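Extended Data, record Kinesin-like protein 6
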Amino acid sequence: MRKPVHSIEMQPRAVGVRCPKARASLEQAVMRAKAADMAGKDCVKVAVRVRPFNKRERDAGSRCVISMTSNTITIQDPRNGQNPRSFCFDYAYWSHSGFTRDRSGLYVAEEPGGRYADQGSVFQDLGEVILENALQGYNATLLAYGQTGSGKSYSMVGYGANKGLVPTLCDRLFQAIRTNEDSRQCQVFFSMLEIYNEQVADLLSRASRCPGGLRVREEQQRGFYVEGLRTVPCENASQVEQLMEQGTRTRTTAATHMNANSSRSHMLIIVQLKQIFCKESITKQSNIYLVDLAGSERQRASGSEADRLKEGTAINLSLTTLGHVISALADAAVGKKVVHIPYRDSVLTKLLQSALGGNSRTVMIATLSPADICYEESMSTLRYAERAKRIQNRPVVNESPTERLVKELKAENARLMQRLSRLGHEGRRAEDNTMELRRLLTHNELQIRAIQTLWEQHLQEALKDCELQYASITQERRMMQMYPYILNINEDAQLSGVVKHFIQDGDWDIGLADSLTRSISIKGLGIQEQHAVFSNVQRRVSLSPLAGSKVIVNGTIISQKTELQHLDRLILGSNSTYLFIGYPSERGGEDWSRYDYDYFQSELAAAEGIHIPSLCEEPAQGDSMASTGQTDPSLLAVFYDYIKLMPMVSEANQMSQELHKGVEFKLEIKNLALSDSKGHDLEKEIAVRVTSLENKQVWLWSKAKFVNRKFLMEELYQQHIADLKGEGAGGEPLPRDRDPFWDPLEPLLLGTAHLWLQSLAFRIALEEQLEVLGSEGTEEAILQAKLLPCTTNGLPLGEDDILIDPSELLRRRLDFQLVLDQCCGLRWVKQAKNRGVQIGFRMFDSAQPIYTPAVWHNVNPLLDQRVHFTSLYTSQTLLDHLQTSALVLELWGLQEGCRELLSSMEGVRMSPEGCFIIDHAETLETAKTVDSGSELSCSLSALQQDVQELRSSNAALRTENNTLREQLNTARNESGRGPSERRGSSLRPSCDAEFARALKVFYHSMTSVRGQLQRLRRHRPSEDSDMLSLRQFVDEQTGLLRDFSELLEQSVSSLKQDVAAIVRRKRERSGIWP
């Protein structure tokens, strides 16, 4: 369409058209061409669907953060409800609430005309559009996008009576074919493939998977296509359903054998529709792409996500490239200049090139979880869909004169027959011509026969396969009614329940070996050749693990023969999960669907003491979530991250063992027992501790880094397996810098201690022995620290410099020293003598953290670190900070070969005496105020007057204090007089003496408080405590904390009352004393 437009626009410039009529006709032609160009464009239609809460979200009391009005979706940040975000799409489906389940198992709206969108409503809008476009001859694409578990597979495939878009579309397609069979002949071909880690696998292939997967090639006419992909002809919807079951079974088996994560794979179903219109002698061919994309989880940033091997993994390449393609196309649609659209950067985008910006009519359905704990993923999905709706495609009807070709071949054959008959009368002179004509005739007949019989041959082959598959399914259903069996459970609900292993009478070995006559062959990480033995004797089934094998039943590792009960949960090896189904007589009306993948992992986590009640039953004091009875979403996110990573950690440990890497992985909850400078709990995250078993080196990986490395480990492991089978390329060992099991050593944060700063507000020295607590509450060390108020030269202040009211520090200089004397009982160094430590801290608004020099190979190292801080102009902000906050002292662990932490001086201000200046923002603000010119002169004069008044008041107070000291000395000198004289002189006691007595009482009460604190520190559960003992410990700890809080509050309150009384009496007497 564009070439005629360009040629028309250039003609006036080339020949200089001056005739008004000619110019008008040219302009009209240009407008018509542009209108035709715009008419050929078709924007991607985007639908959004909100699913109900799943079981784990209901159990956790999750809140719904998504609302819907018409086609507008509004999402609210659970941590900040002030700024909700709204998005508008072509279709919006509310499937979160307002539904019920009828007798047939179909989910329908509770009330007629309710807002609930069922599967039929979704198909009516989206599926009908896809079907109509395909019947018209257009290519059509349906993309399902969203995080794992958000409802993609339910919308695409469905389950039970709630059929999804794909089976309903196929059913309606064959209905349309039967309706129009008089006017056209239709042929339907079905293909099913999976893309995992940039490798394409044919899910309908009878042969085993080839190494590296199928190749994606390109032709000028066809575009990108998968070479060798099996296309199966179908003549009814039941054949399609059987092929989908076959593909799902292949996908499940391959995921188990290859240790692949199905949530990271893309599934493509390709339905080719060929319509032959006999009267018009035209063939229309449409390709329908039905794409279930991989889970779109975004990794939570933690500040240390950078991974030197991040670019080495291809597991997320397709989804990442798809995002880049969509962004580039969206920018192009709004007129931005786009140099390159990266279709060729991944397998998925190559195959979807026509669907995105090409010859296709495309629909995307984005599925959302409405739970508060999924806010970040849901927001990411909405932004993705927002960009996709701006993409413009250029669909055209795919017509070809196939029937015309057959007619032309037949007509040519008729002409050849006539020529042959004429040549027969001419004798031998035409013998050579006759042979050539017969060769052409034979070639044409073969072409005609191939065109007419290819479809029938393929169809007959497909029918034979369907008959064999039907016989296998019938045999399986018959055995299900006769014997117990184990049923596979997969992270992807669509792949669960696909594989069944029957346990017939007698003993059955289960493991990798399949050569034994009575064996059940399973594959997976950690599965031994002979892993365990099932015994079925007198209708009782038991499981006996063999030596060296790992078997878990209902969350507990077993080492001896165990009798199985109906619906017991089995985990064999690292993560091969199965549900045991007993004899038919044992099966009641239980809902087996509750035993999903999350149930298995939650059961394992509970056995380790990690479950939602343990994380959430003791909310922090003052927590807003506690007052509303709601569970903190961050805690729920940690719990779900934990159970999600558990099987991955188990698999990583197994791969490390088989590859002889000598590395152990262990899950940790980061910041479980740590708090910030205000005493508020830090946000908890999942981390993975990596330990070298040989030299005790330790790394701490974030969740994102571990997940990335896990996929690289899988690639390395698959190469190892291929080498063992003789199928790999062999080659040199992997260099250490490319080994996913290794990383350069970095300093590790071992724990923190809190040194409260309140004493500085009164200019009172403080000396403490601080307990350094690790991330999970373990005692890492004892740190001896001091806070010493001092002069500008670093000399300590005396008792006379103690302040009664902290506000006396305002706008005055404050100097103090932090002294770190010694660190005792370093658990980090006890574990390995070749380690060292450093202490790091950041005081108030310091631009950079300060680190002590590293100390090595000592369990009780002397630190002898003294740092002088000064505030030149103490602000109210600093004063509030001193009274309410603590200095967080971080204990960092060092290992041999690890870099030491250095204090940076960038942005740090120093005083002339060499002190670190804090509160410099207030100092700068004051300088700006002084330099602001005439506009602030009045304010400056007022401030100067206030300062002068304060100085005068201060001088008067000093004079008064001198008088009081003289009177006190006089009273002491007269202590030798008679009782009556002493009684008379004691009528006016010194205020300083009263204040000293009040402080003495306060410090005496603080001794009790310190004792209570020491009892809290020593009060710990025993290592072998069970759940009941732990609950008793929590109750006792709560009581001790309550007593500590009350005792501390009484001491402080008493001191405040005494000081207030002293000040009041002092003011009363000031008018009498000279």
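Summary. Residues 431-480 form the longest helix (50 residues).
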